[in-house]
Amino acid sequence: MKTKTIRIATCFLGVHGLLHAAGTTAGTTISNQASLGYTVGGVAQTSLNSNNYQFVVDEKVIFTMVKADSAYVSVVPGQTAVVLSYTLTNSSNAIVDYRLSAANQTIGATDAFAGTTTFQTASNATFAHSSGTGTYNAGTDTKTFVDQLAADTAISVYVVSSISLTQVNNDIAGVNLTAIAASAATPGTLGSDLVNTSGADTPGSIDIVFADGTGTGGDSALDGKISSIDAFKVVSATITVTKTSTVLSDPINLTTNPKRIPGSTIQYTITAQNTGSAAATAVNVSDVVPTNTTYVASSIVVDGVAQADNGSTGDGSYTSGTHTVAGLFPTIGTSTTKIMTFKVTVN
Q1: What is the DSSP track for 173-237?
Q2: Which of 69, 122, 184, 280 can bridge 95 by disulfide, Cβ–Cβ 3.0-4.6 Å?
Q3: What is the CATH number of the domain that holds 311?
Q4: Contact residues for 134 (Cβ-Cβ < 8 A; gap 6+)
């Protein structure tokens, strides 16, 4: 009686792509072929080979984006070209373009640092770093989308905004940046947004499989986009100025319970106070001596120091032509109060 012994072996052939965090590169062809060997009556027979079976590795799209700023980005009212920084990392098994879209948070929303958004920036422009990660440079970081980001590669992306002059100390503006995965078919040109392949596997074609997570800006998982929130905070001086007057003497009562009658001497006190988070510099105070009064020569005192009317002391002066008293506080630091006084007589 003849006997048969059969051995089956599988041989993997074809081109193998590089291994990345998400696995073999999309588009890699994987092929294999089975080989069958057998004997009859103890005699080895000619081996047989199966057909060579091939398939193409599909594209797994997975990426993250996080704010690179560890605290609020400090800005001042009226400042332009202020920058929020984010880091976008492509963990897909393919080169991917990314479309960038920035939007202001709604007022009242919780910002990236658990504060509350109180205003919105005047404009938001998006840019990608010229190569890899780094600090924003307006001269070189001009591309408005991420072009050809390789697998296992990170890049810095930015939102560049302007702050209204009307904002005040401690105002907060949250900005939500979203990156959307796009085709990287043509270098230098933003491709069309990738679309998740629905239904069954498509043999011989590269299907798209979204594997992204949920961003901090409210996007959903597995949607081909990721969002991240960052925030500006206004750090500015908060200056208040008040003016009071005290009657020092009059011709009848002299300095005892004086009244504001013709010939009396009145002292004006101007108080400037900074309750903000930043110092105010080059603070100028001016006050026109009121009608029906006459300025008392050499009566200006700035921050406790008597001033010469001609301004030779540098911090106070009187201009006779316009009857204007002026004072200068070079700096008013935080939680600081400065005072200027001068005297007039009632005509």
Answers
A1: EEEEEEEEEE--SSTTS--PBP-PPPSS--TTS--EEE-----TTSPPTTSSEEEEEEEEEE---
A2: 184
A3: 2.60.40.1170
A4: 156
65: helix, coil or strand? strand
Q: How far is CA 268 from CA 131, 246, 274, 330, in A?
A: 61, 7, 20, 21
The encoded tokens of residue 342 equal 């001068």
Distance between CA atoms of residues 272 and 158, nearest Å: 39
> Does pLDDT of 221 surpass 90?
yes
Last residue of a domain, one of 182, 209, 234: 234
Which residues have CB under 8 Å from 162's CB, separation 6+? 79, 80, 81, 82, 121, 122, 123
pLDDT digits (tens, 9 = 90+) for 87-131: 999 999 999 999 999 999 999 999 999 999 999 998 999 999 998
Q: How many CB atoms lie within 10 A of CB 98?
A: 27
- Print the domain residue range for 40: 4-57
- Cβ atoms of residues 152 and 158 within 8 Å: no
Same domain, yes or no: 22 and 123 = no
The whole-angstrom separation of Cα 236 and Cα 275 is: 9
- Mean pLDDT calculated for residue range 2-8: 47
Neighbours of 126 (CB within 10 A): 21
Last residue of a domain, one of 202, 218, 234: 234
